[in-house]
Design goal:
Elements (H helix, E strand, L loop, with lengths): L2 H54 L4 H16 L8 H5 L4 E10 L2 E8 L2 E7 L24 H16 L3 H9 L11 H10 L7 H11 L2 H9 L9 E5 L2 E5 L36 H21 L5 E3 L7 E3 L5 E3 L5 E3 H8 L10 E2 L2 E2 L2 E2 L4 E2 L7 H13 L2 H4 L6 H15 L6 H6 L9 H37 L9
Antiparallel strand pairs: 1-2, 2-3, 3-5, 4-5, 6-9, 7-8, 10-11, 12-13
Helix pairs in contact: 4-6, 9-11, 9-15, 11-13, 13-15
Length: 484
């Protein structure tokens, strides 16, 4: 064998190995490229699916107008009706303006009805998404459904929506401390409205009414607007959409929360009080709005048979009328005491498990269950989220050191930290009755009264200061207690 033979064979073997590695490298590159391409397709598919889901609930004018057009088609087919349907679909007296927001299926739009601005709302986009009224499936004609039948079924639905049992209805009839008797029963109040009807309901009327009653916010607003000035008024409806009064909502980015420059309210009347000086100052308006918040809290706590709890307190959920009355415009998260207790009483391992948005309770570690009674109060959350930013030293500037302003800041701080709930021992002692006379309830009432007194004094002080300034300008001499 030649000496070079072995080397020659080794060279051929090396060449084959080199070719194999090249071939494997190409295969690996191809596999890697295929994997990369597949991953790219998968990720882009996820993005497209996510985008399509997001876009399906994205607030657009085109989609809003299609929704309203579909509603008018259903009205033309005789499937829905309402006191604003003809104006919207036939006479053209309802003008669409813009889409405000879509959230979890809820559609909210701005429009004008007979020249006045309104807000159009529906919990669900399509009329067919609401459960139909069962009795219509067993009736040969709509005329067979008597008004009394409608009252019966509507009352049951309202009770279910508000979380009130029949026993609660009877309790409310008797009232509590003079508060509930004047209101009568909320569900029966609805029944009284329906009993005024002297003829049968059509199928379209029944179906439309039933779709509205399945919307908790509509039920609250429709029933409470006759009992409270602190809720938005329902102006009309068409099918599953209802119109409420247009009010400019608050905004967290506005230092005054509400656009006070849009509110034109004369502070005083008289020939020499005209012009810009005759209007309330921004701070006076803030004080009056704060007083209206206090009035709303007292009203919701005491003027119904059960407390009304607001579990989503933020500027966007409130508005003000031209008289500076605070109005709750979004009550999707408002619950009377019985329903509030059902929501809070859940399994828990710590207090953190007993928080439901702005409503919270404590965890009973021995039972591993949340206390059904709310620990904080509407007032406490309003002090924390509304009053503290309003009356902070940073916002008040040089006025922050004035005695009444300092007293107000301390009261707001105390209000934010006051636990307004009822612990289990107090709850047992009160027999489970709402407002069972606990010390914590008393302290909540005390802080409410304290805030009321301070704000009233500030308002009077501001008026006196403004009056003094006016006197100095018009008469040219200093204001004293002798000519007050």
């Amino acid at each position: 064998m030649l000496p070079g033979g072995q080397g020659s064979g080794g060279g051929r073997l090396g060449l084959l190995r080199w070719l194999g590695l090249r071939l494997w490298s190409r295969r690996g590159t191809l596999v890697f490229a295929l994997l990369w391409f597949g991953s790219w397709l998968f990720l882009n598919g996820l993005v497209l699916v996510h985008r399509s889901i997001m876009m399906s609930d994205y607030c657009t004018d085109d989609k809003s107008q299609r929704i309203l057009k579909r509603l008018c088609v259903e009205f033309g087919e005789g499937r829905v009706t309402g006191d604003m349907c003809e104006d919207m679909c036939v006479l053209g007296l309802v003008d669409y303006k813009r889409c405000l927001y879509y959230e979890n299926g809820k559609k909210v739009m701005e429009g004008r009805w007979r020249g006045k601005p309104v807000i159009l709302k529906s919990k669900l986009e399509n009329f067919s998404s609401y459960e139909p009224l069962g009795i219509l499936d067993y009736q040969d004609a709509a005329e067979d459904v008597s008004p009394l039948d409608v009252v019966f079924y509507a009352t049951l639905e309202v009770r279910n929506s508000l979380g009130l049992a029949e026993a609660d209805e009877e309790e409310e009839e008797g009232g509590r401390g003079g508060g509930g008797g004047a209101n009568s029963s909320l569900a029966r109040l609805w029944g009284k409205k329906l009993k005024k009807r002297d003829k049968s309901f059509s199928r379209a009327e029944l179906a439309s009414l039933w779709s509205l009653l399945q919307q908790e916010e509509y039920t609250f607003l429709r029933l409470l607007q006759d009992l409270s000035t602190h809720v938005a008024k329902v102006l009309g409806s068409c099918g599953h959409f209802y119109a409420v009064e247009y009010l400019s909502a608050g905004h967290a980015w506005d230092q005054n929360i509400f656009s006070l420059e849009d509110v034109v309210v004369p502070g005083r009347t008289g020939r020499d009080r005209a012009g810009p000086r005759g209007r309330w100052t921004s701070r006076e308006m803030v004080h009056r709005i704060a007083l209206s918040f206090l009035d709303m809290v007292w009203h919701f706590d005491n003027d119904f048979a059960h407390k009304l709890h607001l579990c989503d307190i933020k500027p966007e959920n409130f508005a003000i009328r031209t008289d500076l009355t605070v109005v709750a415009i979004d009550v999707d998260m408002a619950f009377f005491e019985p329903k509030m207790q059902d929501i809070l009483e859940q399994n828990c391992s710590s207090d953190d498990d007993c928080n439901f948005f702005d409503c919270s309770s404590r965890c009973n570690l021995s039972r591993r269950r949340c206390n059904p009674r709310r620990r904080n109060t509407n007032l406490q959350v309003i002090c924390e989220k509304i009053f503290r930013p309003w009356f902070s030293p940073t916002l008040l500037g040089a006025k922050a050191g004035l005695p009444l302003q300092v007293e107000l800041q301390r009261a707001v701080q105390e209000c934010s930290e006051t636990d307004g709930g009822v612990d289990e021992r107090e709850d047992d002692a009160a027999g489970g009755r709402p407002g069972g006379g606990s010390s914590s309830s008393s302290s909540s009432r005390d802080i409410h009264q304290r805030l009321l007194n301070i704000l009233t004094r500030l308002l009077h002080e501001g008026g006196a200061s403004d009056e003094g300034k006016r006197e100095r300008e018009e008469r040219g001499h200093a204001h004293t207690s002798l000519n007050f």
